[in-house]
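Hi support team,

I'm opening this ticket because the web form for multi-chain structure prediction keeps timing out on my end. I have pasted the exact lines I submitted so you can reproduce it. The total is 1183 residues across three entries, so I didn't expect it to be a heavy job. Is there a limit I'm missing, or should I split the entries? Thanks in advance, R.K.
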Amino acid sequence: MGESRVIFGSRRRRRVVIVLLLIAAALLLAACSGGDPTNLARVVDRAKPQSTLDPKGPNAAKIDDLYLMVIIVAAAVFVLVQGALLVAIFKFRQRKGQERPVRQMHGNMRLELVWTIIPVVILAIIAVPTLSTLFDHGDDRDPSENALQIEVTGHQWWWEFSYPEYGFTTAGELHIPVDRPVYLTMTSADVIHSFWVPPLNGKRDVVPGRISNLLLQADDPGVYTGQCAEFCGLAHADMRIRLFAETPADFESWALAQAQPAVIPTTGPAAAGWETFSTICIACHAVEGTNAQIRIAPDLTHLASRTSFAGATIDNTPENLKAWLHDPSALKPMRPDLNKPSQGRIMGMPNFHLTDQQIDDLIALLETFQ
Amino acid sequence: MAVSMDHTEHAGHPDMSNVRKVAMWAFLGSECLFFGTLISTFLLYHNTTGDGPTAKEIFSVPFTSVSSFVLLMSSLTMVLAHHAAGRKDWRRMRVWLLATAGLGLVFLSGQAYEFTSFVHEGLTVTTSPFGSAFFVLTGFHGGHVAIGVIMLLATTLMSFTGRLRDGEGMNVELVGLYWHFVDIVWIVIFTVVYLLQV
Amino acid sequence: MTTPTHHNPHKGVWSWLTTTDHKRIGLLYGVSALVFFLIGGSEALLIRLQLAAPDGTILSADAYNQMFTMHATTMVFLVIMPAAAAFTNYFLPILIGARDVAFPRLNALSYWIYIFGGLFLTISFFVGGAPDGGWFGYAPLSTQVTEIVRMDYWALGVQILGLASLLSAINFITTIFTMRAPGMTMMRMPVFAWMALVVAFLLLFSLPMIAVGLFEVFLDRNLGTLFFNAAAGGTPLLWQHLFWLFGHPEVYILILPAMGIVSEVLPVFSRKPLFGRSFVIFSGIAIGFMGFGVWAHHMFVAGLGPVAEATFALTTMFIAVPTGVKIFNWIGTIWGGSLRMKTPMLFSLGFIAMFVIGGLSGVTHSIVPADTQQTDTYYIVAHIHYVLFGGAVFGLFSGIYYWWPKVTGKLLSEGLGKLHFWVMFVGFNLAFAPMHILGLEGMPRRTYRYPKGLGFEFWNFISTVGAMTIAVSILVFLINAWRTRTHGEIAGNDPWDGRTLEWTISSPPPEHNFDVVPVVHSEDDFWHRKYTEDADGNAVAIPGGGAPLVAGPDDPPIHLPSPSFYPLLAAFGMFLVVLGLVYVPVGLILAGIGVVTVVWGFFGWSMEPLTREAH
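Hello R.K., no limit was hit. The queue was backed up. Here is the completed structure from your submission:
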């Protein structure tokens, strides 16, 4: 065994150092991140806005309570089992030169029974609140009359929200009143997505050809972020949700404003923008109150009232919009070359090679979509 | 207690016929799951006919009953072939093996005719999930029958070369196991797909 | 037409390409698995580099999606399963006192299909991109874009890899049932052999289900079938059921061999028998059965309905019971023993510690309402890696250090081995423990980047540091493996004072394994030849008990399987078939050539005599 001591000679040491330097370099390179499309710290002032451990509504709170109970039991089991393991290791380690005789134990029937039955009992105990919460959560399936109805459609790679009680459609961002159940009726336009706003509830898959439902309810006004949680292709990571919980009064005024159609200016750059819009954008985007009625891309009627766009990933500023209109795929990975509207496959916004003038005019127009 | 490792003459020489039989049974076990899954897919989609024809509209139970009977008869000839091999009556064995293969081919022709007529009547793999499930299920079954026919012919040919004189009975038994399995699968398919739908 | 052999059938590339010796095939599996481990690990490192900071730019979204898809596909199908196959191939026959497996050429075929399958998947990187739909290939994402062939590579690649495993399963089941040495009853078989048997049955019954699913995906993509087409009335959920009906037994396929290894190592290094041996065996069988009843716990947010969800919650909870029984029996094994803390022992103990964590987090997933927060987040990624890395990989390394001397005749360095273990242990926990937190704090999985402001930065950075540390530990292992060629201590037959039959023969073993097929009188037969028990139950050595058996004049001649290149040929044919199928309809020509090649291979195989006399 002696030759293993030679391993830390200087050649060995040099190799280790080189490896460590390479690691450090790689880390440094990784730490130099790219741009800053959205720093959500500008939007939400909580340190962990998507945390499941900081519930902001009754549904998430129920889950958190259940999880806390289970994790305590798991932690106890962890301590006991790892403890036994460590005690065994330290107590029965063979020390140098101390060979002792070892009793050749083959087993112990009573022990087998004990350590089979006890876990069964523990699991049975955990099963009770689990099943009761599970069936309780069946509230997801039955809306109360008080619930606000929202229809959700998942697209690659943005979320569409319709408010049938008010008659409008929006994208990326939704508003809800506090202290009132919100009943989501959801489906997908293409592949499987999953709707998830962790502070308010667990997630639910949205599946093409199927309806799924989820209940949301917020205790307090605020911004709650979420995102798609089922891998749906290229820009799965960029399919985000911004949820604004507001007082009932604020919500009502927001909803009523959203239900208003757009008024297209007839003069100025915005009017010129509309010329471009109704030639190009109209193929995919809808604006209520106009002849733009296709909804394979987000409804833009009240774009200017939103804080973000592009699947709620990019802050809604004229500069960002400009960059987006100039070359959408530069800001968000997409495959518009694979678009096949007849087959229901839309995978992003193409680059229309708009001139700077067209872009400026469009932005002027979009700014009127309050 | 001291142990001396005595050894026996049979050590290291397992009975090969037993070995191959175990392998065939294991394989057939997995085939059960394979066809079970295909049948489950069919059951899921048996009513998802879209704009295309339904089972009631397109299946001809009388026709399929005849081809099913043919396949059932081939199991009988298979048993006879195996029996002949057991008696080392190689000539008879070949006759029954060829008969089995022949009946299998008649069955396959029946399938081919049936599928062609379905296509003419508007049911293809792409018409509806029902169509997809139906053709993929019966297609895989037909493929298994075809492979069985090849195995039957191969066994017949091999018996001519006299190469497998000793193992011959065993080979016929293995082919027989496979063939009977394929037949049983067909009985299930016929019941689930044809009889229960109309 | 017999396979030509050169003067020395044991040397040269050709002897390796045509080998039917289970030990050589085991070695081939082992080396191949290691190579793919490095590839899969590199894919993981790239992922971790991308996620070390918010808004990472190391990988584009497209590259990232390929990376995580291939990392998982590689690790599951090209690393862990083949590594287990390496050990099973090499040692199962020896452990049961046999000279080879039931079907040596079929065994070779399985290996070559695996290699060509791995090659097939690798080719995709160079011809337009690797699969990018996740290793789980959820429809309709996997059937959505047919212009790009990446997911055809995936569907066909996984399909033939599954075939390789299925053939192995049939081989091992048959071997265990028909080729055990005289006196080796089923209950006297080593636990590793039992786990291999359970795994073989799991493969036998789970692979057909995903085979059907994969055919359906391939047909939807290429023939216009409508299995997963929602607009036509198909249901994407069908895919999920088919996938997980395989996928869940698959995870037990991944862990049971490692559990078998741990069950072999702990007794040897504690100098005590496995505590509750029959309970460990029956728990393995129970896990196998119950493993088929929990699949929908992967679908708790897919909308199955509360009754189904409740059912699967219960079945998932209760599969923890046999798992716990194993863990408790392992602790019972070391309790009261005399523990020699050599590297194989360290990895087995590490397995227990890490698997407990992974198992406990698994129980938390079964709590359905809680799982609606946990699923599809890094909390699950943490669980997966605690059981598959902290579990399976640690167990496999335990096996590597344990059996290395038997295979090579030399011992790996203890110093480097311990360094490997500790660096890996630290790195592993640094990499994956934080993922529990990240998941609970709302980080979903399969995301190529995350923005600032969600608080994900710190733990992601730590995790990346951990990943780098793991890489260093693997470097240590590779150095150890390389050095041992020239500096390794000679092992002899029985360096660990082992309990099972492989330690009765030379290191490395002769081609025919046993000069004399042993007659077995008990479990741990070799140990009982070397030791008896005194009145207190302590082990007492028997003088001369460990002497090897010598063949006598009455012993029957030894027959060995001949080398054959038909398995290689047939596997190559299958490779041509799948490569052609990716590019249908043009590729049908290539596929046709492939079919002809396969038929030629099988025909030649059936004409070739099986055995030759050993010299």
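A quick check on our side: Confidence is low (pLDDT under 50) at residues 1-11 of chain B. Let us know if the file doesn't open in your viewer.
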